[in-house]
Design brief:
Layout (H helix, E strand, L loop, with lengths): L9 H26 L5 H6 L3 H4 L23 E5 L1 H4 L5 H5 L4 E5 H6 L7 H7 L6 E7 H13 L35 H15 L8 E2 L2 E5 L13 E5 L11 H13 L3 E7 L2 H6 L12 H6 L9 H9 L15 H20 L1
Parallel strand pairs: 1-2, 1-3, 3-7
Antiparallel strand pairs: 4-5, 5-6
Helix pairs in contact: 1-9, 8-10
Length: 350
């Protein structure tokens, strides 16, 4: 007997679509609640759930009065830094000590046309009257920045360099929300996060738990981090494919140039998260060169060994680096500020 297929009525077709979209909305809503609101760079870009990698220990708050940024012509200390400095958290320790601090990003040097080896005279021409410049960079990007700084041709200043205040301190994170409907993660992020979650719980080999530019590594990290899935730690793949550091000559050239302009440089190289938790050069694609050991060979360079200090403190302080991020926690930044404040005190009293 032939069964004739009856066409679906418009009403039934509409109901099917409504139920389908409702079902999808429920699924995505459940994923938003379960995976939690995204806070970290590594969880966001790598599609790893905040539920598993978000920090759980509360972080301290800092008085807003300490988040000051002084103009270039008033600053005692100028900081040339990256994202580790733009929140101005570690600088609060210098401000608390009565120092006037101004902070600019490496990219501001490009914008203002002074990114070249004659940095000292150009900073003076831009209005800087202070005695000290702190040059801060994350380990994996330091060589690239030094090569650019040294090789860029001389050209006039495009405009007067200004210290631009950052407002990041207004969003101090002392605790995490579980979910926020004002800024949803999105279905695409959630599907990939679900896929990555399955791979983590299957405990697949390391090569299979890489997502985008984020690598999850199976370590015994529950004594170091507070996140739920603390047998795994997240790292950016940039920690493992940085070239061998061979730019010490460029550092010496810039150091001499600044001193010629009566500016005392302090080199602050922040170790990569992988350097602190996995060890020097662990899993690195290229032969590893310890930057801090190279600096120590030249007495004319002032460079606190943050790597040794951070490795030691990370074993004591949980969430020294954020488990969901490449950056330090607030506690970690404050520890960094104490180290640099002590270094500055020693320099200024000698």
């Amino acid at each position: 007997m032939n069964i004739l297929l009856q066409p679906i009525s418009f009403k039934k077709y509409s109901l099917i679509l409504i139920y389908m979209f409702f079902f999808m909305a429920v699924i995505f809503g459940c994923m938003e609640i379960y995976f939690e609101k995204i806070y970290g760079d590594l969880t966001r870009t790598g599609n790893f759930p905040e539920r598993y990698f978000g920090w759980q220990l509360p972080q301290p708050s800092i008085s807003l009065d300490l988040f000051k940024d002084y103009p270039l012509d008033e600053a005692d200390i100028l900081i040339i830094g990256d994202s580790f400095s733009m929140g101005r958290t570690w600088q609060t320790k210098l401000i608390a000590g009565g120092l006037k601090v101004g902070t600019i990003h490496w990219d501001d040097l490009k914008t203002n046309g002074i990114l070249h080896s004659d940095l000292g005279n150009q900073l003076r021409a831009s209005g800087f009257k202070g005695r000290y410049v702190i040059i801060e960079s994350i380990e994996r990007l330091f060589q690239i920045r030094m090569n650019t700084l040294y090789k860029a041709p001389h050209h006039p200043i495009a405009k007067t360099l200004q210290v631009i205040s950052s407002e990041n301190h207004e969003d101090q994170l002392t605790s995490r929300e579980r979910v926020s409907w004002n800024r949803v993660n999105g279905g695409g992020w959630g599907v990939t996060a679900l896929y990555n979650s399955i791979k983590l719980f299957l405990n697949l080999p390391q090569n299979y738990i890489k997502s985008g530019l984020v690598q999850a590594i199976n370590i015994n990290g529950c004594q170091w981090f507070s996140h739920r899935l603390c047998n795994f730690a997240l790292f950016t793949t940039g920690d493992f494919d940085k070239p061998t550091f061979i730019s010490i000559a460029n550092v010496l050239t810039v150091n001499k140039n600044l001193k010629t302009a009566d500016i005392e440089p302090i080199w602050v190289i922040v170790p990569d998260k992988a350097t602190v938790y996995l060890g020097y050069g662990a899993l690195n694609k290229y032969p590893y060169q310890n930057i801090w050991q190279q600096f120590a060979q030249y007495p004319e360079l002032t460079a606190p060994d943050l790597s040794a200090a951070f490795i030691k403190e990370s074993k004591i302080l949980k969430d020294f680096y954020m488990p969901n991020d490449t950056h330090l926690s607030t506690n970690g930044f404050l520890y960094m500020g104490d180290l640099i404040a002590n270094e500055m005190q020693n320099i200024m009293t000698n």
